[in-house]
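Why show two proteins at once? Because comparison is the fastest way to build intuition. When a single record is shown, students tend to memorize it. When two are placed side by side, the eye starts asking what differs. So, the first record is below.
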Amino acid sequence: MGTNPQRDIVLNINGTEHRLSVDVRTTLLDLLRERLALTGTKKGCDHGLCGACTVALDGERIVSCLALAVSVDGSAVTTIEGIADGEVLDPVQQAFLDHDGFQCGYCTPGQISSAHAMLREHARGDLSAASFEGDRRAALQGRPALTESEIRERLAGNICRCGAYSNIVDAVAAAAEATSQ
């Protein structure tokens, strides 16, 4: 058989530029975990269904197990390791601690990464399916309230096997409140 095709890429990961030669079949998740030792991002289902591998790509959340590393060449990636400001936790991270938004903790990095990006999406006025359940006029103006239903809908792609959803929703609501002040 032939050799594995390689390609040179550049990624800005958590504020640090990385120049890498990667096999074109390598997923972003495997690059992060296996080559760069950023193991906070978890491999759950490896099929894009559980959200454990959620990271932000140029500010937008993606499941990194479905993204080939070569397809994101030149992008900025933020993993769970890049959310805090040094030793100072991000409001989402602090809220997860304060509201016990985890049990076994396996899904927590993906939940936090997803919630972190979701709060930015909500702040800029992005809508979800739940946005139209309440005040339709507010939804059409891009200002849906961040209700429990809205949070659950927006984080539906992140699965928690332990069922800590009520605490996760409380944590995200508290983080939203903390970041809006």
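Second record. Ask yourself what differs from the first in the token line.
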Amino acid sequence: MKTKQRLAYIELCREFESAKRRVKPEVEEKVNLGVLYHLNEFCTKTVKSNLDFQGVLQKSAFNKTVTTYADKVRIDSVVLKKMFQPVISDILSYINSILKQKVAKGIDVVLLVGGFSESKVVQDEIKKAYPKFRVVVPFDAGLSVVKGAVIFGHLPTTIESRVMKYSYCATYTEDKKQIFTQLVTAGDSVPLEHYVTKMIMSSTDVLHVKIYYSNHKSPKCVDDCWLFAEMPVPTPGQRRTMLQFVFGDTTLSVN
């Protein structure tokens, strides 16, 4: 459906986006998706099974947990909750990795934002995992990211610093030696317009600079990294070249 009936697939995603917020952790009930017409059309025309969606459903492992009624597909909340588990596990694992860092010492509040944070299932699992924390879900949590983007668009200096997702390194040749140097470290808080300056001695007319990024805190060589960008820097008649790597903005700049 995703490749052959794109509009139907988008409609299915919209229905699911709405349905996943209606599932309640302690209530066993069916959740309705208004996509039966699209699924019937897909089964009869694209799959060419001579069966509508209900016919295909009866032959599947979900014949007792997924049913149809009028123009709706009805799914047991138990089935939907199972879909949540891999994602929730990833969320909890990521929160744990943050809480292990020194900068997280003393944290006692978890603020949930984004559309998925409106899910009662997600909220309940986080509260169970961190009973000592106060879990806060602001009004219109799904719009938090959009509002933040609008504020940033009007006033970029609202963001004073950013936590680096990756470590960044650079390589270049200095007096016929290949140099590998780390610029910033993953997890560090970097202020806006943070300059890292390198003075390079070069005997060539062009300095070839490559920038790498890595998940490692302290990558030792390019084998620990992925290539991010490369650029030739003209150095005619100069032996000393000053490079400035500017971090802290939405993009990495090099002067």
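One difference worth noting in the second protein: The CA atoms of residues 167 and 179 lie 17 Å apart.
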